[in-house]
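Continuing the batch. This is chain 6 of the set; chains 1 through 5 are on the previous pages. Same settings as before, nothing changed between runs. Recording input and output for traceability.
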Amino acid sequence: MTWHGYSMTAEGARRLGATVFALEFDNRQVVPTNLELLAGVDFDSIFIYHPEIEIKYMREHDIVPTQVHPNLKFIYSAFLCTDARRTILERAWGVPYRNMGSSGDQYIPASECEFSAPALHFLEDQFLLEVVDSDTLESVEQGAEGELIVTNLWAEATPFLRYRMEDVVQIDESTCECGSTHARVNYRGRYAWSVLVGTNRVFSDDVENVLWTHPETEFAAYQLVKLRHQPQDELIVRTTVSEVSNTDELRTRLGNDLHDRLGVPAVVELVDASDIGIGTVKFARVTVRD
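Output for chain 6:
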């Protein structure tokens, strides 16, 4: 386990009989710490934080996690995980990936089980969920897509009432195969990270699921270009790329794949990483143009 925000899960793990290693000095050292320094521990699970850095390190050092920790059952983290990201993670680590829903304000309100993935079980004894139309804020019909609103029921000192998550979701309230009756939330994307192309709304997750299946743009930072006046006639995507001999061919291939899979006209711009705002973990997924 690493990063202070997730030390709060340690008590639950201990109650299950687990031995918890909380490593908080540098969350960029997940692989060197867990797969080299602690190679003899034989972990059941490992929390990952910087997937790109971690996988790059494993490839450069020829590290096979399941050989280091033969009892490793799964890896886990807490970010909006696309199908493409999950595929990369599970291929590199050799075990299933389990996601948790997280928010800087709501902490960890949800998590996957082996049957619900990629949907997340929300803890409905701790959080009140609503799905509304983002324009009218009226509730949508049961099972319909809408914006997620969360009210936490446990944070007595700092409650958040009807907190707009800006996530577009669909909720399944049927009983899961695991036996849980907690609602399963399927994430579609975030309104702030989307553009309207004609009558089709394209989310950053849609674009990521295309770009990250190409080896040249695996884990590449990217941006959707949102024209100030919506809708726009075509999808414009900016992305970084590793060394490529034929950039024109790559631009065309990526643009055609985006068009074929998303059903909208698409143009790809290859840019330097410095042209996309990148923080320690996240990058700006949308940029606005006149």
